[in-house]
Design goal:
2 copies of one chain form a homodimer. Chain A has 13 helices and 12 strands. Chain A has about 325 residues and is of the alpha/beta class. The radius of gyration of chain A is 20 Å and the shape is globular. Chains A, B: It comes from Talaromyces proteolyticus.
Amino acid sequence: MFDTRANILLCGCGAVGTMAAVALERSGCAAVTAVLRSNFSVVEQKGFTIDSVDHGRLTGWHPSYIARSVENAMKHGPFQFIVIALKALPDIYSIPELIAPAVTPFESTIVLIQNGIGIEQPFINAFPRSTILSGVSMIGAHQLSSGVIRHDRSDILHLGPIYNASISREKEDELAALFSSLYTSGGASCLLTENITWMRWKKLVWNASFNSVCAMTGLDSGAIIDAGGVETIIRPVMDKINSIAKASGHTLPDGIQQLMIDSMPREMHFRPSMLVDVERGNPMEIEVIVGNPLRIAQELGCETPILRMIYEHLKLVQWRIRRAKTGSRLQK
Amino acid sequence: MFDTRANILLCGCGAVGTMAAVALERSGCAAVTAVLRSNFSVVEQKGFTIDSVDHGRLTGWHPSYIARSVENAMKHGPFQFIVIALKALPDIYSIPELIAPAVTPFESTIVLIQNGIGIEQPFINAFPRSTILSGVSMIGAHQLSSGVIRHDRSDILHLGPIYNASISREKEDELAALFSSLYTSGGASCLLTENITWMRWKKLVWNASFNSVCAMTGLDSGAIIDAGGVETIIRPVMDKINSIAKASGHTLPDGIQQLMIDSMPREMHFRPSMLVDVERGNPMEIEVIVGNPLRIAQELGCETPILRMIYEHLKLVQWRIRRAKTGSRLQK
């Protein structure tokens, strides 16, 4: 089965995407063509510099091929797997449009390694004949500067198919097993699950609460705890996410709220992605972390005044970030 | 009645306080002792530099006396009126404690020129034998730098007594009339009202909504309109303030929400006080603008999930501001 290398396109070569590329390449059974944007020139000249808890220190590392765009990557296709490790920003850009030229119907499997809930639907709509594998990453990794990555918490990727009636379930499970096997034999860990959406809801309990409130207040997770925000905001939001999950058929463990609060001790002073984004003036993943759970709640008839208010505030902040970006682009 | 000058202590000599001092002094019937903090040295050396829509250009202007503290001001007492134009920050400092040494029971009238609702109660509690006059200022004035003031919208002060059963209503009305007469004869405008609390609720419709949301999102009032925030957040918050006001016995005009939205056209791009505060790292008046209406709602049994969530977020931001202030003070 592994006699020929699996041909893989990777879109999004930040910290998470790059560590996925490392694992896949190190399996010896995959050739990765990575599409890079802001760090293309640095990586073309010097490769990645990686300090990894799983793989040790790598200097001058690069995947089989790098490209500046999906179009430029096409010459290395066709691709069996198309791995998406871009930020999920449906209010800013359409990833299905971006990857469309590289998707071969029935042949290309799309692997999503992204935050949030409900992220798969645009891909199902755009590529009804492709298997969609959905992944929730538990990695701790950051790009310190362009092409320089610190990977300090082991790469554990939870993965499962989003089953699609037009494709045989057996084939979907096989593709998930193949991808998982590549990933894991490369020195990271890819755990198969039959209910990846459950896993997404579980992770969302932390993300929709702490990530949002940190972004709105400029505080890290430990400061939110110190300032008394857990009881006043975090727990009510967690309760609501828990109840939306349940209403949508995903019953989370009893006491999930406290488990999630305890999962990130205050001493860690964790700075979640949306806080980092707002401070750097980058768009935040508000639609997949807050907007989609809200829309799901609405379809299910759940009242969500608090979550909606947080969402509407975040949308105004996003508007400010986008306006500043547009302004600075116009000035160039 | 105006044969001898009224002796007035003024606490808080920012833009609003200074313009009050100008009006009172220019009446020729009042001697103002102003307590200055950050701008004391500049004003002691060069006086105020004022560009005023009501009073023209004043250079080297100062009130009768200036002092660094209430204690230092005492030698110019006793004071018939004690005018408070400090920011209302009950979570940071107690103004009743600050002015206590200067308050002569039955003799000193306290005049509050401050934002928010429910601000009078701490003064009623601390000084049950003093007349309390409560003022809502409609001035447009800013301190551009220490001691330099631009006053660009006429000074209209709405004023009325907070009637107190232990003092004769006649005396309270007389004192209000006297203060109003001093203020108005000095070239500004002080309009007497029997229901100053109604006026406070009216102003709060704008303040609790726009001021809060601007502070949380970093947008000015015009940008909130451009970004679509009026329908998603501003109007629901205005509706709630309107209904709390009504529940507390203060029926505001029909359509007050739209009147308030229209009162500040988007072209003005107004930057309300809490936005200016958060950007400068100064504490915001969240307790009197959001906290007090919430507490009043709670006493009246009104549900306020949205307003509460805004309040809890603002409290976390306030915590961050205070922590930064403490940190920078410790570093000195």
